[in-house]
Amino acid sequence: MSDLSEMTSVLTWVAAAVLVLAGSAKVRRPSGTVAALAGAGLRARAWPVRFLGLVEVAIGVTVLTVGGTGPAAATAVLYAAFAAFVVRQRRRAGATCGCFGEERTPVGAGHVAVNVVATVAATVGAVTAAPAPLAGVGRDPLAALGAIVLVALAAWLVRLWLTAGAELRTAVALHPRTRPESSA
């Protein structure tokens, strides 16, 4: 496996793990995604959002356990659709993404970047038939376990950056920094 192939495999795995986190959140709490879709002028109800969440979880789990062209291609298609949605949302003041079922998470440039990088990585993963991280369990269980732990950690950090990080950046932007008055 080449360095590029390995890198895109890992990025595809992280994208898949983020799908599992986001999909699980939509299944549990669809209201944030429903609100984001309604804010974009799209009719939305809880059951289609929950269904989307189940699709995300299924695709993410399949990438992580089976790998291959089909699951990676499905991941690329989902992230391309998400990228189009967040680009549209960024044009609206105060728009939210709803990606993790959150109602208050503002859409930022980070959302666009994550979705575009995930789309590209998963597309390359589809072309190269990215293996699943669990595929290495039989050959080297410790390395496979390490890969799974690192992918899970990376996915959780992406989630934090897109949710809490976006909220923090918005809060900082709302409160301009004050400089102490000079005593001259």
Could you explain how this protein is built, in words?
With 184 residues, the protein is an all-alpha fold. 70% of the residues lie in helices and 0% in strands. It is built from seven helices and no strands. Helix 1 runs antiparallel to helix 3 (46-65) and helix 1 crosses helix 6.
Question: Summed up, what is this model?
Answer:
With 184 residues, this protein is mainly α. 70% of the residues lie in helices and 0% in strands.
Whole-number count of domains: 1
Rounded radius of gyration (Å): 18 Å
Poorly predicted tracts of residues:
none
Question: End-to-end distance, in Å?
Answer: 65 Å
Number of helices: 7
Shape: globular
Mean pLDDT: 88
**Helix and strand sequence:** HHHHHHH
Share in β-strands: under 5%
* Classification by helices and strands: mainly alpha
Q: Using DSSP, what is the number of strands?
A: 0
Question: Helix fraction?
Answer: over 70%
Largest sheet descriptor: none
List the quaternary state of the chains: single chain
Q: What structural keywords apply?
A:
single chain, 184 residues, mainly alpha, globular
Write the topology of this structure.
Blueprint: H1 3-28, H2 31-39, H3 46-65, H4 69-90, H5 109-127, H6 141-162, H7 164-174
Helix pairs in contact: 1-3, 1-5, 1-6, 3-4, 4-5, 6-7
